[in-house]
Amino acid sequence: MSHANLEKMVREALYAIAPDLEGEPIDPALRYRDQFEFDSMDFLHFVMELHRLTGVEIPEGDYAQVETLAGAVAYLTDRSAPGSPH
Amino acid sequence: MSEFRMPSLGADMDAATLVEWIKRPGDPVQRGDAVAAVETQKGVIEIEAYESGVLDDIRVQVGQRVPVGTVLARIRTDDQAPAAPPQKHVSAAGAVAPSPPIAAGPPAPLPAPVQAATPRITPAARQRAQALGFDAAVVPPGPGGVVGLREVEAAQAASVGYAATPPPPSRPAAPGRKPGLDLDEMRAAIAAAMARSWREIPHYFVSSTLDLTPLLTWLEQENARRSVSARLHYAAPLIKAGALALKAVPVLNGHYGEHGFEPASRVNLGIAVAMRGGGLIAPAILDADTLKLAEVMDRLNDLVARVRGGRLRSSEMTAATATLSNLGEDTADTLQPVIYPPQVAIVGCGRIAERAWAHAGTVSARRTMTVTVGGDHRVSDGRSAAKFLNRLDALLRQPEQL
């Protein structure tokens, strides 16, 4: 999947669990928690939604890698690259 | 024939605006069905029927703001149907909600529909601007023609030329649009409920610091095995254990009304959920003590999703028999919570923090949480709260049995 598509999907996951943020610009390098008052429950819901959209299983140990928009896109790019288990 | 009335959805509510008839006249309704939706200070809430029958004789139209207790419609019941007193719930809640109409103001006039024209304003930005006392429409848009949180905050920081405008009256919902939460109104609602609580309830506070290491270790092992969609957040075992401990200490679970304390037979645990931008709502997970951990998690997921972007139901807003407030990570160590009347106890959880922990003659690093019970001295004493905390501690040490 292309970088642009993955980014679109991450945004979709964010807006799905926080509909009031729909259309908010997202700083790709800043943690959602620092931008949008996300708590760990919001974050779990975000990971669940990302899983639903992409099928990628994100273990708890990897949560820190998807805490930003850029991080999540990079993480998903690795996981959905040809030859990867996903 | 029974009357379908505007219920009191909390000690702080005196009126609400009807925004949707979910059922139409002639539609059959079952007890528990959502019949209408109303806009309150806490957002849009679906009101459920307390009796089965056929909806008939709608008396209040969409857009009308009416006081608690107003007959909204009638429900035609068939003769065999046991006539459960329909107002029971309403009067029970209403009887203990004499709070004066704070900031009621004039009835909200029907405002012009919000313009969808450029610039685009995100709902979060609109709310933040409103909370700050100005209209997001006057804020210069950022890149892409969007007024977002950043633009609103920049405008606030610059503080030039944005004369504070009075907050607009609450807007009735246009079909298909989730109305923005009015944070000023929500703050007024919280103020009314908490002022009443502090005035009327002689609070006491009792705290213990609990070692959550066994729970968190168990959760990490469980979650490593589980697919993302089935993962557990530590709030789920906290809720389940809290509900079980409340069941064991009945003087903390129930309501204080005209006739004093009425213990509750069920444990409906209100869960304080913070709103982005400020304010909170505490809808209940019904019978939380009887649910499996996975069910608690499902309810919690659903509840949080509906607080964020959907609708809560009237039963969730009125049924809580006690409340749990979890401050969460990156916050602070101790929360001394204020009781939500007519309840008689509230449990406040601080953040999980690693601390030096002395046990059996040795010191080790453990992950701990300080839990504080706010209790009502008209009903219970510190000893009851201590019993609750010890029970909670014991339950959380054996998470696999929850």
CATH fold description of chain A: Non-ribosomal Peptide Synthetase Peptidyl Carrier Protein, Chain A
Approximate strand percentage of chain A: under 5%
Uncertain runs of chain B: 80-118, 160-179
How would the global form of chain A be characterised? globular
Account of the 3D structure:
The complex is a heterodimer of chains A (86) and B (402). Chain A has helices at 3-17, 32-36, 40-54, 69-79. Chain A is an all-alpha fold and 86 residues long. Chain A has one domain (3-79): Orthogonal Bundle (Non-ribosomal Peptide Synthetase Peptidyl Carrier Protein, Chain A), CATH 1.10.1200.10. The mean pLDDT of chain A is 88. Chain B has two domains: 2-95, Beta Barrel (OB fold (Dihydrolipoamide Acetyltransferase, E2P)); 202-401, Chloramphenicol acetyltransferase-like domain (Chloramphenicol Acetyltransferase, 2-Layer Sandwich), CATH 3.30.559. Chain B is globular. By secondary structure, chain B is of the alpha+beta class. The interface between A and B is medium-sized, with 28 and 35 residues.
